[in-house]
Write a structure and sequence with these properties.
The protein has 212 residues and is α+β, with helices and mostly antiparallel strands. The chain has helices at 2-13, 54-57, 140-146, 160-170, 183-186, and strands at residues 31-35, 47-52, 63-69, 74-80, 85-91, 93-98, 101-106, 109-113, 119-123, 129-135, 148-150, 189-191.
Length: 212
């Protein structure tokens, strides 16, 4: 199934992907990364693999990765600001939330959602979920790298209040890329934090950098 999806996407983008190169990877090959602890925010798994990115393939049109989500593992409710995404559930059972709708998705199932969709996922089965994720354009892999380290390195915790503050600033065009190169990473995703947390930030109240 994964091979079919990659082949179709490659055929669609071929004419516009000058400079990209072919790439063949086995199951455990790719850029293996370990997520950094993120306070009380749950994480679906400790590791994930970025398999097709601009850095290793030259692709200008998509990003693909994989991960194994154990029983009870959760992808917290969030939304991507710029990329559509496809999830391929290869094994296991996932309870998926898309905005205000909920679905149970089983092995072999496919989930598509456009940018700006609130999405969450939980492994409600007894087996690992073998998950393939595909983004419609590069960009979000920067966020994933910001929140992780290469396998074998120490993974320092993320300051969650700083994360959301930077996310808020990044939503303002005049702030993009102005603070130590981090805004373009954090500014591609919003998490649905509980409203009683200090992380509940109204980004419209953040002062623009050129304002008096």
């Amino acid at each position: 199934m994964l091979l079919v999806v990659v082949t179709l996407l490659a055929a669609i983008c071929y004419a516009q992907s000058q400079g990209a190169k072919t790439l063949v990877l086995e199951r455990n090959e790719g850029e293996t990364r370990v997520r950094r602890p993120h306070g009380a925010l749950p994480t679906p798994s400790a590791e994930f693999i970025l398999k097709v990115t601009p850095e290793n393939s030259g692709s200008k049109h998509l990003v693909l990765g994989t991960e194994e989500i154990p029983p009870g593992g959760v992808i917290p409710k969030h939304k991507h600001l710029e990329q559509d995404e496809i999830l391929l559930i290869q094994t296991g059972t996932a309870h998926v939330t898309l905005d205000d709708k909920e679905y149970d998705v089983h092995a072999g199932g496919t989930v598509f959602f456009p940018a700006q969709t609130w999405v969450g996922l939980k492994n409600t089965g007894t087996d690992n979920i073998s998950l393939v994720f595909i983004f419609s354009a590069p960009g979000f892999e920067k966020n994933m790298r910001c929140g992780s380290v290469l396998a074998g390195q120490t993974a320092p915790p993320i300051n969650t209040s700083t994360h959301l503050f930077l996310t808020g600033l990044a939503l303002l065009p005049s702030w993009r890329g102005k603070l130590f190169g981090g805004l373009d990473c954090w500014g591609l995703e919003l998490f649905d934090f509980p409203t009683d947390e200090i992380f509940d930030l109204d980004v419209r109240e953040v002062i623009e950098p050129n304002s008096p």
